[in-house]
Amino acid sequence: xxxxxxxxxxxxxxxCEKPGCTKRTRERKFxxxxxxxxxxxxxxxxxxxxxxxxxxxxxKARIVGPRAVDPRGTVTKxxxxxxxxxxxxxxxxxxxxxxxxxxxxxGAVSSAYLTRLKQEGxxxxxxxxxxxxxxSLTPKGVxxxxxxSS
Length: 150
Prior knowledge:
Elements: H1 43-64, H2 74-86, E1 89-90, H3 91-98, H4 107-119, E2 123-127, E3 133-137, H5 139-149
């Protein structure tokens, strides 16, 4: 039986690892919200670096077009993961529901990714009755996806 939120156990806590800080953290984090950004090698810095890489990846695709799309890049991996999770799907729905990095970019950028992944033989593209691109993984795309996840 599912417990009501008020009956559920509180999330596990730790004490902030910043010397002198006695604040509790949530969900086993190492630092309290006040000190989390001071962890130079931790998750926030890694996430910040990753987001800057993605921004750079997307900007290159915006400026140069399909040639600049990195078939092994973070955005490509997210696209391939999304397709592998749901199977055949319209490109628009994939971007909206499964690819956070591209769901708010202009059409030229998403088109660059669609074109490049098709050129690389990673995805198959056909048109729906409404003439929207419908994508699915090719056998090469399945191999790529399996290699990327290991």
